[in-house]
């Protein structure tokens, strides 16, 4: 999923004919941070925070959940919409595990139960993208779908 996110940033930059420096300026990030986000497809150990991903989406004026889509088309995506994406993610995860214990999410390697608990209970306000990707993978959901309000997403 980090690969898709990274590649979609590149597609949007190309489509909008803007540089990493311009995106950094428009996102209020450093060029190094933008470069790191674009390098997620190359270096699996690299990670960015949710806030950084949101800043990039704002800077590109691209709908946040679309940046995680395999079918990303920069000419057809909606504009950025400010929202509480962590709250939406949390609500959608809770909806997805409604009849299961939260511990179910930590049965696979890669994420600690305490990390999942902290995210779902609002103790972490700016989680790493990799943590959210692992949760989405365990739920067998596309991460982008977990950032869409329940009433807009018929899958829940």
Account of the 3D structure:
The chain is mainly α and 156 residues long. The chain has two domains: 2-68, 434 Repressor (Amino-terminal Domain) (Orthogonal Bundle); 85-152, lambda repressor-like DNA-binding domains (434 Repressor (Amino-terminal Domain), Orthogonal Bundle). It has helices spanning 2-16, 20-27, 31-38, 50-60, 85-96, 113-120, 129-138, 143-146. α2 (20-27) crosses α3 and α2 (20-27) crosses α4 (50-60). The two termini are 20 Å apart. The relative contact order is 0.15. Mean pLDDT is 88; it is low at 152-156.
CATH topology of the largest domain: 434 Repressor (Amino-terminal Domain)
- Using the CA coordinates, give the radius of gyration: 15 Å
Global outline: globular
CATH homologous superfamily placement of the largest domain: lambda repressor-like DNA-binding domains
Sequence stretches where pLDDT stays below 50 over 5 or more residues: 152-156
Structural class: mainly alpha
Q: Which strand-content bin applies to the residues? A: under 5%
Q: Count of DSSP E strands?
A: 0
Multimeric state of these chains? Answer: single chain
Total count of domains: 2
| H/E element order | HHHHHHHH
Number of H/I helices = 8
Largest sheet: none
Which CATH architecture of the largest domain? Orthogonal Bundle
Q: What distance lies between the first and last C-alpha atoms, to the nearest angstrom?
A: 20 Å
Quick check: average pLDDT? Answer: 88
Percent in helix:
40-55%
Name of the CATH first level of the largest domain: Mainly Alpha
């Amino acid at each position: 999923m980090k690969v898709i996110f990274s590649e979609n940033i590149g597609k949007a930059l190309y489509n909008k004919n803007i540089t990493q420096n311009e995106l950094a300026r428009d996102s209020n990030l450093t060029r190094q941070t933008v470069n790191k986000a674009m390098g997620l497809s190359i270096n699996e150990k690299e990670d960015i925070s949710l806030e950084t991903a949101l800043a990039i989406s704002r800077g590109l004026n691209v709908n946040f959940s679309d940046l995680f889509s395999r079918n990303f088309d920069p000419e057809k995506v909606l504009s950025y919409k400010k929202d509480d994406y962590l709250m939406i993610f949390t609500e959608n995860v809770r909806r997805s595990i409604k009849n299961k214990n939260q511990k179910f999410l930590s049965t696979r390697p890669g994420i600690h139960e305490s990390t999942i608990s902290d995210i779902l209970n609002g103790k972490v306000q700016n989680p790493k993208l990799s943590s959210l990707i692992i949760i989405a993978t365990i739920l067998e959901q596309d991460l982008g779908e977990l950032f869409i309000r329940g009433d807009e997403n018929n899958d829940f």
